[in-house]
Amino acid sequence: GAGVSQSPSNKVTEKGKDVELRCDPISGHTALYWYRQSLGQGLEFLIYFQGNSAPDKSGLPSDRFSAERTGGSVSTLTIQRTQQEDSAVYLCATGLAITDTQYFGPGTRLTVL
Amino acid sequence: RKEVEQDPGPFNVPEGATVAFNCTYSNSASQSFFWYRQDCRKEPKLLMSVYSSGNEDGRFTAQLNRASQYISLLIRDSKLSDSATYLCVVDRQGATNKLIFGTGTLLAVQP
Questions:
Q1: Contact B43/A48, CB-based, under 8 Å?
Q2: Residues A60, A66 contacting (CB under 8 angstroms)
Q3: Measured on CA atoms in the order B31, B94, A105, B44, is the torsion positive or negative?
Q4: Residue A107's closest CA among A1, A5, A27?
Q5: Is residue B33 within 8 angstroms of chain A, CB to CB?
Q6: How many CB pairs under 8 A join A and B?
Q7: Is the pLDDT of residue A91 over 90?
Q8: How far is A104 from chain B (nearest CA, A)?
């Protein structure tokens, strides 16, 4: 069956450029999380969406980061004016509810030169 | 105090050994508990949910101790393939409910 998919799998960009990362959830999953993981570190929560409720943006590290989820399905995470410290793996996870089992996508590895 | 705390390890054990990890959580109202496994440079994957009565899946046993606010994972007869980082996950109940991940415990099973 189809799991969570993310694209691109790898993204190399230059400092100062904008990037957009995409997450396609498992069909029917209303909860969607974005995390960031730097090499050798734990998961850093960024944002979550739950159905039609207002998203919890409390983990976004700066106003350069934004995310949206259109139609309760696909989500995009946008990073403006990328910095080298933004280099990390960005993981998306979805579930039936916000505190239910989360299923992760394979991640997008972002490298900012 | 962190919401979810784990010993980062590494736990170096020989094949066939039994190893146990604990994870403490701070929110007494938490209701959902999970163990995830993350292999090097891969995404986390659900290992097992943790139920109040405790549960077992093959060589893996998970238990919940609400009074002391910790969950545990026991791995019997360790295999080389068990080498990974084990993440403890607990829900935060309150004004904003969400899952909180621990930073993980690294297990290295040695031949």
A1: no
A2: yes
A3: negative
A4: A5
A5: no
A6: 47
A7: yes
A8: 6
